[in-house]
Amino acid sequence: MSSLLDYSILIVRNLNLGVGQSVEIVCPLECKELADTLKDVLVRSFVNVSITYNNEEDDYYIAKNEDYYDKLIESQFVRISIISSFTKNKSKKYIETQTMKVRNYLYSSHSQRTVVAYQNEIWAKRLGITYLELKNRIIDMALRGNPLSKYIDDLYNCDIKYARIKSSIGTDLYMEFTDGFIFNDGFIKTENGIPFKANIPCLEIFTSPIKNSLRGHVEGSKPVYINGRIIRKFSIDFMNGEIVSATGLDSILNDDSLFYCGELGIAYYSDFLFYNTLLDENLSTHIALGNSYYMGVKKRERNKLNTSFYHIDLPIDDGTIEIRFYDKDDKLKALFKNTGLEIYDN
Q1: How many CA atoms lie within 13 Å of 189's alpha carbon, on the beta-carbon side?
Q2: Which residues of 101-127 are buried (b: 16+ CB within 10 A; e: fewer)?
Q3: I need a surface site. Which of 184, 245, 284, 286 has the fewest CB within 10 A?
Q4: Angle at which helices 32-44 and 4-13 pack, to 10 degrees?
Q5: What span, in angstroms and rounded, lies between the C-alpha atoms of 196 and 114?
Q6: Residues 272 and 283: beta-carbon distance below 8 Å
Q7: Domain boundaries, the chain
Q8: What angle do CA 98, 104, 107 make, to 5 degrees?
């Protein structure tokens, strides 16, 4: 059984903090235990730390003014976002008001950032397990090594051009990839070359398809918890990259950029459901609507990807997923199933 201290040390280590960088921890009050432990670890390294609870009565955007963030950005601050399902989180207003200055700074790779999960009592009850069991599941998952990292070089050497994704529940999807792309296993770099892990845990490998290339049908395989709502069932039809019909997704398809796919994430399947996107995306192969990730995509190819303010992961594996990867000559180069990856030498 792993400890909260182990978890906190892992989070800090994966940020690769530099001299003089400050850290802002943003989280719901329900996650105070992890925030305090992280602060203790960071203070030992003489790091300046602030904690903001984004469900306090004094809303986040009121307490922190522009001068405050100008100073943080000048010091190349790092943000640790702690998320937890079924909380009394009031962060929507905070996101809408603080996003432009801070989000542009963080998501332009000027500095490190990470998103991590922590449990709360209501969440554990919704899952029908104890608070301690949920805590141990989250921490053990975070401390686990990525089992798919070993396949990245093999897939790169296959010179893949497109993939065909099928499952027994009806998914049959075609997508193309940029020239010379490489799958990513969670580590990205700042513009100064500092590697950091943006999500903890990360048990997937992922890349971004060409925006206009998707065609076919997708059936959702698991319920999804998004913005406080549970979407229990969904399906999507793509043509020329765009969603032309969908069921179950009316509550999220509220922006034109969400009608295109930004990610294919490959993960081993588990039937356990956290009702938390950060965790559940690591337990099922998935696609994401909205923003693409540039990691592993050559600069000259990035204009072929979708861009969006949003990124919504949707699971598509029921345990039967098969992803066939082909080269430009239509030769089958690799096959992923939940038993592993098979490479074809042809």
Answers
A1: 6
A2: ebeebbeebebbbbbbbbbbeebbebb
A3: 245
A4: 60
A5: 8
A6: yes
A7: 4-143, 149-184+203-343
A8: 115
Could you read off the pLDDT of 77-126 as tens digits, one per residue?
Answer: 999 999 999 987 544 444 444 556 777 787 777 889 999 999 999 999 99
Superfamily of structural domain 4-143: Thermophilic metalloprotease (M29) (3.40.1830.10)
Exposed / middle / buried, residue 97 (Cβ in 10 Å: 0-12, 13-18, 19+): middle
3-state class of 13 per DSSP?
helix
Total number of residues shown for the chain: 346
* Cβ partners under 8 Å of residue 111, min gap 6: 21, 76, 77, 78, 105, 190
Report which DSSP code applies to 228.
Answer: T
Burial class (CB in 10 A: 0-12, 13-18, 19+), 171: buried
Tell me which DSSP letter residue 150 carries.
G
Query: What backbone torsions phi and psi does residue 33 show, to the nearest 5 degrees?
Result: -60, -45
Q: CA–CA separation, 221 vs 280, rounded Å?
A: 11
* H-helix or E-strand spanning residue 117: strand 113-117
CA distance 285 to 276: 15
CB 59 within 8 Å of CB 94? yes
Residue-wise pLDDT tens digits, 51-86: 888 765 444 444 456 677 788 888 889 999 999 999
Amino acid at 181: F
The predicted model scores a pTM of 0.90
d(CA 57, CA 298) in angstroms, rounded, equals 45
For β-strands 215-219 and 172-176, DSSP reports them as antiparallel
* DSSP conformation letters of 289-337: EEPPP-TTS-GGGGGGS---S-EEEEE--SS--EEEEE-TT--EEEEEE
